[in-house]
Structure formats: C-alpha cells, structure tokens
Amino acid sequence: MCLMMLKTPWGWNLLNGLRTRNHGKKNSGKDHVFVLGKISWDFRRKNDDVSSWGTRFLELDQLQKSIKSLIERQPWHVNDIGIPHPTYFHPHLDDDIITWQLKIIRSNRTSLVSFAGAARPDAPQNIRSILINQCNNPGTNCRFLNCSSGGCDQPESVIELFMDSEFCLQPPGDSPTRKSVFDSLVSGCILVLFDPFTAYYQYPWHLPEDHSKYSVFIEQEEVRKMKVNIIEKLKKVPVREREDMRRYIVYELLPGLVYGDSNSQLEKFQDAFSITINNLLARVNKIE
Fold it and tell me: The Exostosin GT47 domain covers which part of the protein (predicted)?
C-alpha cells in the first residue's frame, strides 16, 4: 500500500477527498464516473514495483464499482467504458459536420491502401514490418507514412493520406487500440483490422456490433505466417461494397466519433461526448 502511495499520490488524494464528501459515500461509488485519458493497462499494473510501468490505481478495491471511461478499456471489466480517441476535427456547428461529410464523400481516393505508423523491430510477433514490406512493394498502390521519422507529426499529412485512401491498415502497436482508427474513420477511410480488441470490443456505444459495415478483418496469424497478401485481398472487395461502407462511415458513424469544440452548438448531431454522457446517465439512473 505504501509503495502504491509513492507511485500515485494523486490517486490516494482523490480517493481521500471523495471519502470526506457525502456524495462520495453514496451507492458504494456505483454512480461515480472517472474519465481517464490513457489506456486501462496504464492503471492496472499487477505488482508493487514502483519502477515498473504504470500504476495500480484501477486495481484498488475502492474503485471496483465505479465507472471508468478510457480510450482503451479492458472488455472483461464491466465498468470499463471505451470512448473514442479525440481526432483533429472539433466541429462547432452542425454545418461544420455537413461540410466535412461532403468533402470526405467527394474525396478523390487515388490510393487503394495506406498505413501510417512505424515498425516494431523489438517485437518480432508484431505484424507491422510485414505490412510495411507488402505496402512498399512496387506497383501495390499502397502508401506508407513513416511515423518513426516524424512523418506523422503534422495532422495535415495524416489526414491527407487517409482522405486519399480506400482502406487504412490498423495493426496493433504498443497496445491494441490506435488513435489512427478514428482519424481514418473521420477521413472516410475503411478500416482494416487485425485484432478484435482494436475496435470491436472497445466502443459499443460508438461503433455498431456489425463491424463489416465499416471494416475488413484479417487474422494477425494469417499475416504473420505469410498466408495472405493484404493488398491483393483488398483489391477483391467490390467497388460498390466499398462505396456502401464509406457512405455508412461518413453519414452514420462520423458525427458520433468527433468531439465538438468547447463552445459547440450542435443540434442535429450527437457528438462522441453527447453519446457518452447520455449512455452514462442512462446507466446511472438504473442503479438501485
């Protein structure tokens, strides 16, 4: 316990502060919501080694009944709620979303596939290097933006890439989820996923259960064993099917994946924040 206090004094300060307030004692914390801007594993270290990564904040007994909103949840923790990574687009008015939708749907997509990321040479089981090699093969109609050399530091470079692409590769990195998933969707790019934990098990309030409406799934092991050529597989997706998926992404998903600006006046659309708050309120109101 003392080691935990040394690692995360802010966590204990927060819990001690809640204990001193009447509302902090109600419902055993079931109606409390913690919003954490990092992934669940960063707060679920399994030991007391203060030199290791992360903390044990979410492992504390006092937090087990509270709701935790995170950009990457652990699906087997029922009180972990996944919320979208913020993107570069923060609309102020409904018209901002409509204008963006029209721009995206009319975008001239000259590349079949793209990947923005970096290799993981120290992680031999990671499939990124294989994808990069396939993407860089001559004549593949695939664009690779190397994030290890600063190529992804400018939002314009990333969004331009995704707006130019039919499909966007989203392999896991240091953890299953990627901000790039939402940058791709907001750019109208069809996701290519290799791990169900990247999106399918993460965001039930913001993404549909039928993931075929917005993504193509390819098993990591198939890639790792060189049993599939990603580019050739994606070429076989009919153009009409791609268009239907893109329309669904742009008109059905996009508004609920972005966060309006701090003074947003959205009326027609619910953004990611509104969807999250409405679902949280509905859940809290069911507490007996």
Answer: 25-233
